[in-house]
User: Fold this.
Amino acid sequence: MPKNKRIRRSDPTAASSAPYSLSDKSSSNNNDASSSRNKPEGASNLVAPNTSLGQHFLKNPAVVTAIVAKAGLKSTDTVLEIGPGTGNMTIPLLQQSKNVVAIEYDTRMVREVLKRVEGTSSERKLKVIQGDAIKTRFPFFDVCVANVPYQISSALVFKLLSHRPMFRCAVMMFQEEFALRLTARPGEALYCRLSVNCQLLAKVDQLMKVGRNNFRPPPKVESRVVRIELRNPPPPVNFTEWDGMIRLIFNRKNKTLRSVLLTKPTIKMLNENMRTQRALNNSNNNNNMADDDEEKEKGADEIIEEVVAMEQWKDKRANKLDLDDFLALLAEFNKRGVHFA
Assistant:
């Protein structure tokens, strides 16, 4: 595309999270617009991907078809597509859904995907938002489909896990190692905080492996497609506190719980949390029982020693504990007045 037709980042029309439409283009683009109307729906130009943004365009139509099929779309669905690129997946999504909202960071790709549908029956069904998918507020959607750049994979998964109202599913392509982390089990090398949090809040299925030669340009690693379905109803746990504990003990997942928790910074933080919680409790309840008073006099270090000495957690390490173990551990700490948020 000639340089004088690109949108500069300083251009107000390229502001983050601004919806694009074909009418936003200047009259200097009229020749391109009229020529694109003569192209069949789904035609594409070979626009150079920006690999610094993690762009690797999926070029195999068979893989695109398989991913769209795995999404199980209905004619009444609103689809959220993260990173449509040149629109290779956008077109079949439009054909099988009510409408598509696409979020694209690269202004060149915004123009390309709009050109793909200009003058077609799908034009009115597509809305493109130019912006950072992590910073952009998601609209309502039923299904999310995405070929996700590595740089935003973790942040995007956590954003989707906390999204409300709940959506039906997300079918997403990640680098293979990241995808395998989502379903890793206790004892496996890839088992991590991401594994635990994702499995707490969602059901994750590995759908298919996608070879690197299906992309332009080929990435350095293989990819996988996963399906994420939020658990409904969500588990009855304070996720902020849950994640505070999980983040803490997975910092050194191969160390014992005692080694991880009995550090000076951790004890200081937990003691501060305990003081805050006690102040809140005292303001709400002035009739505490004697055994509660005795428990409240203990510091975080004493309580940690008592808990990690219990049979089910003695000499245990985070990399070998499952969801039920973590839920029981958090409940035990909370019962004794220790809070992680």
Observations:
- The chain is about 35% helix and 15% strand.
- Residues 264-284 form the longest helix (21 residues).
- The first strand starts at residue 18 and ends at 20.
- Residues 63 and 192 are 29 Å apart (CA to CA).
